[in-house]
Each structure stands twice: as C-alpha cells, then as structure tokens.
Design goal:
Layout: E1 2-6, E2 8-10, H1 17-26, E3 36-44, E4 54-56, E5 59-62, H2 65-72, H3 75-84, E6 89-99, E7 109-116, H4 123-138, E8 143-151, E9 156-163, E10 174-182, E11 192-193
Antiparallel strand pairs: 1-5, 1-6, 2-4, 3-4, 3-5, 3-10, 6-8, 6-11, 7-9, 7-10, 8-9
Length: 195
Amino acid sequence: MQATQYEITLPADYDMGVIRHRVASKGHLLDAFPGLGFKAYLMRERGRNGSPVNQYAPFYLWNTDEGMNSFLWGPGFRGLVGDFGRPVVQNWAALAYAEGGASAVTPKVAVRRRQHIPESAPLPEFADELAYEAKTLADLEGAVCALTAVDPRTCEAAHFSLWEDRAPRQAVGDVFEVLHLSTPERAKVTHGRQW
C-alpha cells in the first residue's frame, strides 16, 4: 500500500468556501475509483485548530500502484493541476494500518504528524515502534482509523489518523477538517503490520 498527499497552500485572505464548494461538487468522483482504499479531502484554515495557513491537502491510501498511477497520470489530477498548478506529491510506503472503534462513522477531523527517523535508530525496532503508534491511536476513543507510513528516501515517517468528532490530546500533529471521505476499496485495506 502507498500513502500520498499533496498540499496546496493558499493566500491568507483566500475564500476557503471555494475549496468547500469544490469538494462538495467533485468529491464524489472518486467514490468508486479502482485501487483507492480511501481519500480524505482535507482542509485547514488559518487561525483554526492552530493552523498557520489556509491549505487544501487531500490524503490518499492506495491499495494498488495501478490505482495510484491511474489517478496521478489521469484526468483527475490533471484537473487539479489546471486549477492550482502542479503540487509536490508526497509518497510514503504504508508500514501499519488499524481500524478504530468508530470505523463505521464518517470522520470530521484528521491529524497528520511527520517524524524524522534518526540515523542512529535501529530500523527493525524503530519500525515496530512506528507500527505500534498506529495501533495505539486506533485504540483511542473516537478513532476511525490510523496508519503509519515511511518515505525511505527522506527517512520520514508520517502518522495519519481520522477521528469521529475531534482528536484526543494523544493525537499530536497538524489538524485538518475532513470535507469528504471516498472509500471505494477501504474494505480491502490490509490491517496490521505491512511486513
């Protein structure tokens, strides 16, 4: 599985209603997209939940490389590029995934935390710790799901979690509002460690 995310940072005075309208009118287009575990349409507004910026930052969990490539090289991403320019697409290999007790609920909040993996870290043990964090987050009240993924090129881990209403204090990181959740193949997402 692959996790991807791009961030479109917008001017401080940008009308975020434009992003809400975009997602309301186009979000359903990926509700049946082959190879997509889920896409969380994320937004954060400057001054809310500690955000220093206005940002549109969708997060994807892909079950297949074919699905990810079909999106990135197809008309869906081309439309976004036409409207906002081509963003850098961050890519992580999924390390662990866990469903939470609120997995049947449509989430309202997402939290993403990036973590540098120190050069001195013993990788097998560190990977176990990263996987454990996904399970720990998923076990908290209100958790929809949690995952940890790693970019081996930059030695960065990304912890991502979806929450029913609001994230508990243990879920530290950038807080996003979830505008829509497309889940065409979420039932096929492999649970637990990915090695």
